Amino acid sequence: MSTVVNIVNRTSDILERGAPILPLVARVVFAAVLAGYYWASAMTKLGDGPLGLFNPSVGAYAQIFPKTFDAVGYDTSAMSLWHTLVVLAGTWAEFLLPLLIILGLFTRLAALGMIGFVAVQTVVDLFGHGLIAVPETVGAWFDRHPDSAIMDQRSLWLVLFLTLVVKGGGLLSADRALGIR
Known about the structure:
The chain has one domain (20-178). It is mainly alpha-helical and 181 residues long. The radius of gyration is 20 Å and the shape is flat. The chain has helices at residues 2-17, 21-43, 58-64, 66-71, 81-103, 107-128, 135-138, 151-167, 174-178. It starts with a helix and ends with a helix. Helix 2 crosses helix 8.
């Protein structure tokens, strides 16, 4: 039995030496799987013209505040300054946080921001867009169906972000180049 334990311990030591590659892999997977999703979503929120980054589209309000926007007859001028600031912050976050993660710059903070973003996104999807009433979209853990958009997919996203919060940017990151811990 001690031989088996020794083999397992030696193998574990070898694997732990390779641990610094884990955050790099997480960042590459994020870039390959989720960054395009978030940037495409952010693009739908931009207003017209070169100042679109400061002038949200109608779709931005409909995505982020669906019930409130419906209640005001889809009139952007009827939305408060607070609504506009939230929409702008959400839009900018969808561009900036993925970029920071890909670059590995302020990785822990960006990943923490993405955890908050996913939490808000989930609340809006469930209650604002009414997905709470669609069991197959919400899903459930331990149900042998790994494809629900909310419980399954977003749980995996959160594990990816938690890896970056705990481990940082890893190898080949701007954090490492700048000496940021």
